[in-house]
Amino acid sequence: MKRFWAGVVVLVVLCAAGFFAYAWKPSIDPVEPPQRAAFDQALIEKGAVLASVGNCTACHTKPGEKSFAGGLAVPTPFGTIYSTNITPDPKTGIGRWSEAAFSRAMREGIERDGDHLYPAFPFDHFTLVSDEDNKALYAYLMTRHPVENKRPPNDLPFPLNMRFVLAGWKLLFFDKGAYREDASQSAEWNRGAYLVNGLGHCGACHTPRNRLGAEERGSHLAGGEAEGWTAFALDGSSSAPIPWTHDSLFAYLRQGWQADHGVASGPMAEVTGNLGRLPDADISAIATYLMSRMGEPTPERVARAKEIGAKLSADAGATPIPASASAGKPTGRGAVIYQAACATCHDGSRPQPFGGIDFHLSSAVNAPDPQNAVNIVLFGLPAANGRQSAIMPGFAATLKDDQVLDLLAYLREAYAGKPAWQDAAARLADTRSGKYQVSVRPSDGIERGPDNVGAKD
Hints:
The protein is 42% helix and 4% strand. With 457 residues, the protein is mainly α. It has a two-stranded antiparallel sheet with strand order 1-2.
């Protein structure tokens, strides 16, 4: 018996030693902050485009403060993580990081000093980024204005505040390595897959996660949650009333709205704003890849889309039909609230994006949960900076909870033909209380504070 327990102890010690050997990563020596002249201007400009694809400013900029200076609180199910300062400040930023240290962070999720990065930084996607693109990103970030800004310490419980435990997470869920092209697919499909799954990290929001915070295997792009919003499914389970096509998806990503699918809102508004730097060919490639994930719509969805089209217009969506005609004369309180607060825009003749979408077409109203509908009613759509954009007032201060719920029930029943959401009251209460820390962003790709002050360098 003593030999048995001695063997168990030896085995445990060996396993622990093996794990710590696996978890330990060496530091990379600091360098003197490189000068701007060390980087080719074309490389910097390429990096600017890539940083937009990665939407780096969204997480690494605190609203109203300097770009990329970090300190933004990122809520997770496990606690709050504060984003890193990625300006070239030598004290609090990445100014003393070499290109090798930067590439290791992107490819392996390891800081310059050897600490493991939390997967709130989506290195499980960034690992796919090519060496050439990492070089351009490094050139861009190292030529930004350095900002001295020390982020607050993360607020995480034991043992998650011990970074070495992340090595276990990586062992279970992290597949390291650059993107490898699928020879059975076209060059455009491969380019789209590279952008979506790599730097674009679309699955970080649009894929459900397991209890350990990893994306569920086998559920790629099946829908998820991010920043207090539901990120709709981008596969065959999409809730869009009118099935997406390559052209409609291209238009939505290119301009931030599309007639059959409405205006981008929440974090997606900033994403479409940042994608404005990409050439049409890359937007088309993204649409090509995503359409391959969605596949052909079911006959039921096609029939439903035709039914909606007939309701909207006898001429394939030319003129919206007023709610009073399509959903009956308003008699309930939700219908009356709709007529008073919503109908002027949503039943009006003003075309999108400046006119409101007909709710027969709304993915939020047709979605399996009410979170996005709650957010839009409460917070509206903020105006973009320095250009014309869609705008909608929020009703958080003017509608009481029971009025919001009546309005949501009316929209759900009248326009989606479905019963009211069972969890609408709970979602509304959690959103009002701040439990869901909802991010409301304009469609111009600029992270800024509530006073609409720009935060670009």
